[in-house]
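FAQ: What does the model actually see?

It sees only this:
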Amino acid sequence: MGAVRVRMEAALQRLLPAPHIVPERLHRAMRYCVLGGGKRVRPLLAFAAGELAGADPARVEVVASAVEMIHAYSLVHDDLPCMDDDVLRRGKPTCHVEFDEATAMLAGDALQPLAFQILAEHVVADSPAEQVEMLKILAVACGSRGMAGGQGIDLASVGKALSLPELEFMHIHKTGALIRAAVVLGARCGRGLDAEQFGRLERYAKSIGLAFQVVDDVLDCDASTATLGKTSGKDAAQEKPTYVSILGLKRARELAEELRAEAHTALSSFDEPAARLRELADFIVLRKF
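And it is asked to produce this:
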């Protein structure tokens, strides 16, 4: 994990516009949002899936950077006053607090197309058709049928009582879609998997995507702001439906363990190359921050 994080920091430093290039303030804001923080779970998953598929790490580095830029843009917009109105992210002031709302909005707006630019201008697949399919996978994952759509459902659900299937549907899109994309894109950088194996990877990714959100909900209720690096207890204060509000803390923890077991089951036919994916399923569920 440490090696991947160091590699990703160097790659993102290189792929982001330099801070001295005009418009300097916007480029500084983009770099502020992306660099020097975060667990890098999505890049870690991309590299683990790439290892399973025998992918060239240089290819995986590109798709992992694209996914991480999309993730960073989503956090910037999520923190804006028109959405969650938060002041702390990754242990430092949110982008709109450090810069201003307009610059934060533009930083997110610029990070999204930059992700597609780097995915288009680097060779990450064996054929142009496969590379176009990878662009489509990322586009769907971050659009109205993925992350943005899930955020829309989230905003419309404040103060409402959702059923467990409705909450799951929201988070399959809001959180799970980009996590699934990280796994699938990392694997597509290689050439060693058949359709049945990709299906197993999809099931793994769906399980850990939901598990990630369940654990996030537990930590929002159970951990301190200092530990999380973002404001704790925010979901309850904003009357957002969560796994904890619907199931209670004990049952939410049990559900995270069940999803972890499902992720391991999905990988049961893979041998040693899937070891990193198994370890990441454990990390996602057992993490304390």
